Amino acid sequence: MNKKERLLLAIGEADEKYIKEAESKVNAMSIIKVAAVLVVVIALSLYLFIPFAPVTSNLEAYEDSSYYPLIEGIDEYRLQFMQPKFKNNFQAGLNVLGNIISLFSFGFKGGDMAPSDDMPNMDMENSSGMMGNGSYVENTDNQVDGVIEGDLMKMTDKYIFRLTGGGIRVYSIEKENSAVISKFEIPTFKNEMGHHGQEMYLSEDCNTVTVLKQFFDHESNCYYVGLISIDVSDVQNISLKGMLQMQGDLNTSRMVDGKLLLVTNYTFNRGTVDYEDPTTFVPTIDSGNGAEPIEFENIIYPEKITNTGYSVVALVDTDNLGLLGANALLNFTNEVYVSENNVYISREYNESTEDADGRVTNSNKSDIAILDYSGETLVEKGIITVRGWTEDQYSFDELDGYLRVVTSTLDNSYIPYGQGGTLSQWQTIENVSLYIFDLATNSLAYKVEDFAIQGEEATAVRFDGDMCYVCTAVVVKFTDPVYFIDLSDYENIGSVDTGVIEGYSDHLINYGEGFLLGIGRVNWDYSKIEIYEQVDNSVVGTMEYKFIGEYSTDYKSYLVNRENNIFGFGVDYFYKEYEQGVGGRQYQCYVLLQFDENGLVSREIELHSGARAEYIRAAYVDGYLYITTQFDLIVEKIN
Q1: Closest C-alpha among 140, 153, 144, 146 to residue 555
Q2: pLDDT at residue 498, rounded to an integer
Q3: Residue 299 burial (10 A CB sphere; 0-12, 13-18, 19+)
Q4: Fewer CB within 10 Å: C terminus or N terminus of the chain?
């Protein structure tokens, strides 16, 4: 072997050596890379697919709190919103990817912000005793005799007291010579920023005006209801007596024998609840010594809490604005009805049941809490449950130990798709029912279920002693049966109705002697006043006044004078049609109607262009009509 051959052999052996070394290094690197990949895959799997742990609470630290049972219920409700939105990071990533694809595919789109409970809660006939201001005259058509409702106008036989944007005006009642006697600017509360919603009362001796106003407190970022007591014994020298404030929005109020029932709505922010501080989840009342939360024994709440809204009922002595009692009702924030002795507050919810065949039925229900205010404080009297929901306060009536309630009912039943259900197996049953409860036991005593036409709901209800009047309708179809229901014998409840009449009514007003008046709509173009009359065993619509314009749905804005069969109301954008054809112009108007068995007479009075129908009030005195608006007093002689 020569020198060249030995060199080539050496090079070949060296290459084999290096190749073998390189192969071993490559194998080692491959193992490392595979291991690294496996580590990454495992880590990614752990990150993507291990399920998120549910959020839980430890409430042991609050077991000694007097509010602990309430804390448990609120915490169970809050935990629903604190749970992970997705099962794991993989689902969350897919959601983000889907949003990115949507943005690039369709462009950026904004949407309306849905309401959230985390947002600030912005959201007698003539009395005896002549005094210097004259005798008290009740001009508001109160639902219950002796249970006075707050209004924008109160009066005596000498003066009209009118609540305006920031004060009180006193007008004399002197026919054509009526004039402003005095004005009083209502004082503001500390940190008050604007006010939203007002009403007032005049005491039976005509010496005190009590004003309720809702205002926003810019320091606490909350709404409050202020009570202002004003001395009007000398209308030329009106002065302030006292002030009180409660947290929340003004819901409604009543005055009975000098005691004021005030109902407010309050919503706490579930995102800022601190169980160490009850004021973060319990309403407060400031009686002059600072805000104090309502005590636990005075709080009513359902077994399952579904929102953060309270209704607060306070009983106040108007002589000194002293607080006699207060109860807070969590989730009871729907309709309020006040009888001679009791306050009824409802809450609506859905109840789901499943039968043996797997059919699921969702039904509307209402719980109605009862508070007795007839004594020196408020007393809880229990809760009753009724099927359906109520339209307004006029859907309730208490008489002789019974509570009568008219409800609209809705039941949706279906078989879930996973169990073979189809759209054709969905059933929706909507109707109107009457329920009568014995208040001695809070038990259901009598009922008349589904007495209306299938698919209709109650749009207006009125009770009058042994009679109940109910207007039902499929609103979008404008069909208007009105039922006269005889409740003189609960064992044999009978009814007659008008049959189908065009339109529907928002309010029904009983004028006696068989006359019933309804205010509502004919269709999307026309509004109407319909006069119904009970004749023998039937009910007929005998007279109608049609107009174009928007009427107020606030019942207090109507003038109801049964003695003279007079009805008055304001209309926004009133438009009069002439017999020769369409003509005229739109304007603010007050309509006065008088009717009897011989027919109906109307009169239209043009008002200040800014006068809103819901803020107009009027009184009929000795042949003269006194109309008050936000701006002025209009006096018209009525023949």
Answers
A1: 140
A2: 82
A3: buried
A4: C
